[in-house]
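Write out C-alpha cells for Nitroreductase domain-containing protein.
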Amino acid sequence: MGSIQPEFKNAATTTLFELVKARRTYYGLKGESPVSDDVIERIVQESVLHVPSSFNTQTSRVVLLLKEEHQKVWDIAINIMEGLVAAGHVSQEMFDKSTKPKLSAFRAAYGTVLFFVDYESLATIKEKFAIYADKFDPFALESNAMSQYLVWTALESEGFGANLQHYSPLIDEQVAKTWGIPASWKLDAQLVFGVPNSEPAEKAFAPIEDRFKVFGK
Ligand SMILES: Cc1cc2nc3c(=O)[nH]c(=O)nc-3n(C[C@H](O)[C@H](O)[C@H](O)COP(=O)(O)O)c2cc1C
C-alpha cells in the first residue's frame, strides 16, 4: 500500500488497528508471563462477556489454564499421540520429528485458553425461531471465533505471543475428565500463550484489490 492513508477521527482507532496488525502467530514461547495472572483472567473474562453472539445467546464457554494446569493439556495431547503411534496410526518418525517437538513447544508456554461452544443451550431458541434453526450452530462457532481473536489480540497487546490450536476431538474426553467440563461444552480451539522467544514467520498478503470491493463511495 504505497498511497497515503486517510486519518482516523479517533486516535483509539489507530491504536486498535496497530494491535490488529501486531497480532501474529508465535510458536516459540516461554513459560513466563509479562503480567499478573489476574490481568490474564481479566482479558479472558472481558472478552467472553463483551463479544457478541447471535440473538445474544452467549454460547461461548472458556477455561483458562495456567502453568502446571496448562502443561496438563499438552501432556494429554502427547499421551494420545503416543497411543496413535503405538496403534500404528501415526509413524514413529513423524511423531519424533514433528508431533512431539510441536506439542512440547506448546507445553513450554505459560498458559492455554480452551474455547468451547455450548450448542445444547441453543435448543429453546432453535424451537422459537425454527426458520433459523440450522443457522444457530454456525453462528455460535462464529461468535466463539470472535472471542478467540479478541483474547489472542489482547494477550499480545500485553506482551504475550500466542498461537491457536485445534486438537479436538482427540483430547476432548481427557480434557472433560481432567477439569470436570460439563458434557454440553464442545471444545473448539486452544490458544497457547507465553513470552515469545522467537519471531513470527514471514507473512504474505494477497492483493487487497482481489478481496475487497466498494460501491457508492
Ligand atoms: C480459524 C483459524 C484456525 C487456525 N488453526 C490453526 C491450527 O490449528 N494450528 C496452527 O498452528 N495455527 C492455526 N491457525 C493460525 C494460522 O495459521 C495463522 O493465523 C495464519 O497463518 C496467519 O498468520 P498470523 O497469525 O501470524 O497472522 C489458525 C488460524 C485461524 C484464524
